[in-house]
Design brief:
heterodimer, A: alpha+beta, BirA Bifunctional Protein, domain 2, 2 domains, 7-stranded mixed beta sheet, 10 strands, B: alpha+beta, 6-stranded antiparallel beta sheet, 20 helices, 40 strands
């Protein structure tokens, strides 16, 4: 049989089968595979091209190509009309059905604030360093220049777990551990849980979180302390925040400073939280006391440093307007859910 | 401590309005708030009482005719002190009083009352209900009472002093700081005493037997005084500062304490047996009744003031009832002493007794001021109460204080503050505080600190004084930091953040429970010896947690009581156990605790599988293998507090437990919901993860083949054993095996179950032929039939 006869017979065969498809006896896809598929009839025709003399090939090839595009067109029309028919026959998917409710919990607000603070100072080269929650009197008080029987100890009512063992009242214990374990220059941030023997109310709790920072180097000054903390305040509270530094007292720093931010006096609540001054105490700070440097084995003539500490619960309460510190420790998912991010 | 702005003017000149004064002091480190009373009433005016007459039939009600500037109006009043000619606060009809009381027209004993004459307590001004409040005679009738009160109110600053500033616990101390800031000098009050009595040595003697507790004891005697009420100016001043006027003698001593910071004690001279004073430490167990009528048991650290017979006062803390000034007192012995701060602090603390005196002594006082204050109060008492002051004073001073000498480097001052002050400026700043300064060399200053600033001990303390005068706000800000590579250290807990993030995306909320728990809770999941608090806050918070699970279960129960029954929580936190080697991080471990309620979850409109133990097992598998902690294995095990439980191991090391919390463990929390829980040693995970290395291999280009293997087995054969066996005997081509069906029921023989595994096979060398695949699958099936009582159902 000649190639052109084969072409003709394929064309006839297609016409027959097309009718069967139109009658619904056969699928359009099957038709396509039978003729245009990798092992289909057209592929067979192309395979025969090789047996022709080279001079006959272009004309025969053109003939097969013509058949191919004709079949493609007819199958294409078939597909278009059948999918349109199908769409008309079956009801549309209700696209207003809700999307799958994928689960999502939340990171605790305290953790979120801690992470934000860590990120801000992290960009300034601060590393994270941890001190223990159960501590000795020495690391929590003695080495931090708290004199025995000094009223400064009243600032921090302490839980004891043994004669010389207590729950740390501040993260400042990490200062001493860092001084003992790291070689200066030191630039650390010490987050963690601290404890005070205070009755639990809306405004105070027997546990809360602090973040402590300490920098030790040869020429660290109050100017750098101010610059660093003001930068932090802008990053944390917004670029327009106004800060002020005023003298204060902590046994482990001298000079000591309190950093306030201007909070404003627009609402009744502003009056309450700022005691009518508009200013809000955000963190305590100061130049590391020479007795602390000595306790950590450094020469205060050679090394200077600054330290600061901030209460996380208090700051979180301000940030989000949370009225009761106890919410942080109840695990109420109606509370926690609001901190999804 | 409270400071009167007006009174402060007596010691330093300033023309700052009260608000600015408060701000100036705050920026000096004496945090000051201007008191602004809130008047909780409206519609109260100044009224004049025109006439008062009794009401027939009542034994105490009076009918008053009052005017608030207009027509006289009748007001019924029950107070005994109301009298014609008085100016009184009148709440007119419609006025509101504290507590939301609205004043209405009333009829009492047939008399119409148009308003109410108020007592101080009715206006919320004090607790005084002894009679109506009588206003000044020259009060303007009709004036709003709030304006009347504001005009007359002394401007009071409330100082929140830091514990180092004992010197600022008085008007003179605050004045000294303010004067230094303003570049002025503070002046002391008059202390000159007219001595008209006999020499004091004839009247009294003092012996300090324990000078370790008392460095100085001075006294004066005044005879023949007349006790009486204080004059108005004095009563008003001490009232404004929150003290109750008592009599001219006691008020004078309180006045001088607030003026100069020196606590004074005044004895009834005639009740001092033997006219001698001794100062010594109490004997342990000794009893003493303080003037508040409480009998107190003392320790050997309590310092006593005694007369010839026995103790008369608890030194520096509180006097005794027997020697107190009383109505019959005519002769006085005035004590002005220096008690050692730590002795007073320890004594007051151990009795849980804090007084105005002890607060000042424990913060340290001016030892020179002992004499100034003694003379000042003597002068004031003789002015107010008359009498003859004995000649001279007793001044026993066994432990002399010398002014502290400190060398200060100007270069160091500038280095620490970030300032560029010259030597003269630094010296000048210090001199403003009364510090004597001499120049030692081009850098060093030799400083002599006056005894009224005992807390200035080191050069850095002087540097703070320089910074205070300069103003913290004037210290230039350094814009930038210099970081050395050596400062950078790894975050030991850096592994926590991705764990949190993963759990949040599986629907878990992070919880932070309280570290302290009940003793019984600490034993629920752990056999470890817990750490106990020696001074717990309550019986519910006595013990440090040994496990995170009780805190998490408490939170699930908390939510359950609030109709939230589908709860997934986790906590990352420290758990503690008692051990001899305390104070190191090794004894407190950071764990991960997870809890989830079991059963159906109200998710979307598609059907979702119920939560069960295997969901949690899957979460933990994913969590741990994503950390690169090596191969994670679960082994059925018994675990304290759990029902069915698995021990979790990674790289062969046990790192946690997972299981169902049985009803008996939920019962203490009143928790009904079924809960699965897990606790993992997160530090161990971090350690193991640190050793695992990430290995890469080329992606295999050849197709994979999947074959299903359905097996019938006795119920008791664990699926885990079969999975292990398939992995171990799967040959080189086995890439994955997954249990995809578990069935037991009708079509199977009793006691049998069916497990179906999907095997994925692939060769790295080429496309697997049907014969190769068949051979591998048969080999696996054959092994399972031979060793695991399995019967192949179909391939």
């Amino acid at each position: 049989m000649s190639l052109s006869a084969d072409i003709a017979s394929v064309r006839e065969e297609f016409a027959e089968q097309l009718q069967a498809v139109q009658a619904g006896e056969q699928g359009a896809e099957q038709l396509r595979i039978a003729f245009l598929g990798r092992k289909g009839l057209l592929a067979g025709l192309y395979a025969q091209l090789g047996q022709l003399r080279p001079g006959e090939r272009p004309a025969a090839g053109e003939q097969i190509n013509g058949l191919k595009s004709s079949l493609e067109e007819q199958i294409g029309q078939l597909g278009a009309s059948s999918s349109a028919a199908q769409a008309a026959a079956t009801p549309a998917t209700d696209l207003t059905l809700p999307g799958d409710p994928l689960p999502l919990g939340a990171i605790h607000p305290i953790t979120q604030v801690l992470e934000r603070v860590k990120a801000i100072f992290g960009r300034l080269g601060f590393s994270i360093y941890y001190g223990p929650e159960v501590e000795s009197d020495f690391y929590n008080f003695g080495a931090l220049n708290f004199q025995p029987d000094h009223p400064a100890r009243d600032m921090q009512d302490t839980f004891y777990t043994g004669p010389d063992q207590l729950l740390r009242t501040h993260t400042s214990n990490s200062q001493i551990h860092a001084l003992e374990n790291l070689a200066p220059p030191i630039r650390i941030l010490a987050p963690g849980r601290v404890f005070r023997n205070e009755s639990i109310s809306t405004r105070s709790h027997c546990q809360f979180h602090q973040i402590e920072g300490m920098v030790i180097d040869r020429n660290v000054s109050m100017g750098e302390l101010k610059g660093t903390l003001a930068h932090f305040a802008r990053e944390f509270f917004g670029q327009d925040v106004v800060t002020r530094f005023r003298p204060s007292y902590f046994p482990f720093t001298e000079p000591s400073a309190e950093m306030d931010i201007y909070w404003g006096l627009e609402t009744e609540n502003d009056y309450r939280v700022t005691k009518g001054t508009g200013w809000l105490e955000i963190l305590g700070s100061g130049m590391v006391h020479p007795n602390v440097l000595k306790a950590g084995g450094l020469d205060p003539k050679e090394w200077t440093g600054y330290a600061f500490g901030m209460g996380i619960e208090r700051t979180s309460m301000l940030l989000w307007g949370i009225g009761d510190i106890r919410y942080f420790y109840e695990g109420d998912i109606r509370f926690l859910m609001q901190f999804r991010s | 401590m409270k400071i009167s702005c007006d009174w402060l003017q007596e010691f330093v000149e300033f023309d700052l309005p009260p608000e600015e004064l408060a701000d100036t002091l705050t920026m000096l480190g004496l945090e000051a708030l201007l008191e602004k009373p809130r008047y909780d009433f409206n519609g109260v005016v100044v009224a004049g009482v025109l006439a008062v007459e009794p009401i027939a039939g009542s034994d105490h009600l009076l009918l008053c005719r009052v005017t608030a500037g207009g027509e006289p109006q009748p007001v019924v009043c029950g107070a005994p002190n109301v009298a014609p000619g008085q100016k009184v606060p009148l709440a007119i009809v419609g006025a509101t009083l504290p507590g939301g009381v609205v004043v209405k027209q009333a009829t009492l004993r047939g008399q119409v009352s148009e308003g109410m004459i108020c007592a101080e307590d009715e206006l919320g001004l004090s607790k005084d209900h002894s009679g109506i409040m009588v206003l000044d005679e020259d009060a303007e009738v009709g004036l709003d009472l709030k304006i009347y009160l504001e005009n007359r109110r002394e401007q009071i600053l409330d100082l929140d002093l830091t514990p180092n500033r004992g010197d600022a616990f008085s008007h003179i101390g605050v004045a000294r700081d303010l004067a230094a800031k303003l570049g002025r000098s503070a002046r002391l009050p008059d202390t000159e005493v007219q001595e008209t009595g006999p020499p004091i040595a004839e009247l009294a003697s003092v012996e300090i037997r324990d000078p370790d507790g008392c460095h100085r004891y001075a006294a004066r005697v005044i005879t023949g005084i007349t006790l009486g009420p204080s004059p108005d100016w004095l009563a008003r001043r001490i009232t404004a500062l929150g003290m109750r006027p008592i009599n001219n003698v006691v008020d004078a001593s309180n006045y001088v304490m607030m003026e100069l910071g020196q606590p004074l004690h005044i004895f009834d001279y005639d009740r001092i047996t033997g006219q001698r004073i001794e100062v010594y430490f109490a004997k342990s167990g000794e009893k003493f009744t303080t003037l508040d009528g409480t009998e107190r048991t003392l320790g050997s650290h309590h310092l006593l003031i005694a007369d010839g017979e026995g103790p008369v006062a608890l030194a520096g803390i509180m006097g005794g009832a027997d020697s107190e000034v009383s109505d019959t007192t005519t002769n006085l012995l005035i004590e002005s002493a220096y008690f050692v701060p730590s002795v007073i602090r320890k004594g007051a603390k151990s009795l849980d007794l804090s007084s105005e005196a002890s607060k000042r002594f424990e913060r340290d006082i001016d030892i020179e001021g002992v004499i100034t204050a003694l003379d000042r109060v003597t002068r004031l008492i003789s002015e107010l109460a008359g009498g003859a002051v004995a000649k001279g004073r007793i001044d026993v001073y066994p432990r002399r204080h010398e002014p502290r000498q400190i060398e200060l480097s100007v270069a160091f001052t500038n280095r620490l503050c970030g300032l560029e002050l010259d030597q003269q400026t630094v010296a000048g700043s210090l001199q403003r505080f009364g510090i004597a300064v001499t120049v030692k060399d081009a850098d060093l200053l030799h400083c002599t600190v006056p005894l009224n600033r005992p807390e200035l001990r080191l050069d850095v303390d002087l540097i703070e004084e320089v910074a205070r005068i300069t103003g913290y706000d004037n210290i230039p800000v350094v814009e930038g930091v210099e970081v050395r590579f050596a400062e950078l250290i790894a975050d030991e807990q850096g592994y926590m953040a991705p764990v949190r993030q993963a759990l949040v995306h599986w629907g878990f909320f992070e919880h932070l429970a309280v570290t302290m728990t009940r003793n019984s809770f600490a034993a629920l999941f752990s056999g470890a010896e817990p750490v106990q608090l020696t001074n717990p806050l309550s019986s519910e918070l006595t013990t440090l947690r040994t496990s995170l699970l009780p805190g998490l279960l408490e939170a699930v129960a908390y939510n359950e009581r609030r109709q939230q029954t589908v709860v997934r929580l986790f906590e990352i936190g420290a758990v503690h156990q008692a051990d001899a080697s305390v104070y190191n991080l090794d004894r407190e471990n950071f764990n991960l605790g997870i809890v989830m309620t079991l059963g159906s979850r109200a998710v979307g409109w598609k059907q979702a599988p119920a939560s069960d133990l295997f969901e949690l097992k899957g979460i933990i598998t994913r969590l741990l293998s994503d950390r690169g902690a090596g191969e994670v294995t679960f082994t059925p095990a018994k675990a304290t507090g759990f029902g069915p439980a698995l021990s979790i191991a990674a790289a062969g090391e046990t790192i946690g437990v997972l299981g169902v919390v049985p009803p008996e463990t939920r019962q203490p929390f009143d928790l009904d919901s079924e809960v699965a829980a897990a606790e993992i040693d997160l530090q161990a995970v971090a350690r193991l993860a640190g050793t695992a290395t990430l290995a890469y291999s080329e992606v295999i280009p050849y197709p994979v083949v999947e074959r299903d293997l359905a097996l019938e087995l006795p119920e008791a054969v664990p699926a885990g054993d079969l999975l292990d066996a398939i992995w171990k005997n799967g040959g080189d081509y086995l890439r994955d095996v997954r249990l995809f069906d578990l069935y037991s029921g009708d079509n199977l023989a009793p006691g049998k179950k069916s497990l179906a595994f999907r095997l994925t096979l692939q060769s790295a060398e080429g496309t697997l032929t049907d014969e190769q695949v068949e051979k591998e699958v048969q080999k696996i099936a054959g092994y399972l039939e031979k060793h695991h009582q399995a019967r192949l159902r179909r391939v």
